Amino acid sequence: MANSTPIIVKGLASGPAGRSSPEGSQVLSKKKLQDLVREIDPNEQLDEDVEEMLLQIADDFIESVVTAACQLARHRKSNMLEVKDVQLHLERQWNMWIPGYGSDEIRPFKKACTTEAHKQRMALIRKTTKK
């Protein structure tokens, strides 16, 4: 990448390769994962391999979101990662909207407004198909 300036993310620096440091730190721990599973179903017990896989998937997801958000911040010519960068990536790539964070600058996709000419054509089509 042409711009190799690190972006500061709450104590983590994402360098030119997009890897976070310190390496090996997990956002989701096994205990938190087990608590989440118990919250959903108190009788459910995850296998050790399943826990490891879910933790790896969560880490990979977070890594990809942070990397893409850092690229958006660089595109804005900023050295600071902001909530709007993460929101934009989550909304556009994952169709996820996290309520309560950020501002109203980023809105979900909306259908384009139909023009008057289109409405008239559709009315004519409906009228001819009813006959």
Task: Characterise the protein shown here.
- A hairpin with a 2-residue loop joins strand 1 (7-9) and strand 2 (12-14).
- 9% of the residues are buried.
- The chain has helices at residues 30-40, 48-75, 83-94, 116-130; strands spanning 7-9, 12-14, 20-21.
- The longest helix has 28 residues, at 48-75.
- The protein has a three-stranded antiparallel β-sheet with strand order 1-2-3, with helices on one face.
- Mean pLDDT is 80; it is low at 10-23.
- The chain is 50% helix and 6% strand.
- By secondary structure, it is mainly α.
- Helix 2 (48-75) crosses helix 3.
Order of helices and strands: EEEHHHH
What does the main sheet amount to?
A: 3 strands, antiparallel
Beta percentage is 5-15%
Helix content estimate: 40-55%
Structural class: mainly alpha
Order of neighbouring strands in the sheet with most strands: 1-2-3
Report low-confidence residues grouped into runs of 5 or more: 10-23
Strands, count: 3
Mean pLDDT: 80
Number of helices: 4
Distance between the termini: 62 Å
Radius of gyration: 22 Å
How would you describe the shape? Answer: flat
Summarize the structure.
The protein is mainly alpha-helical and 131 residues long.
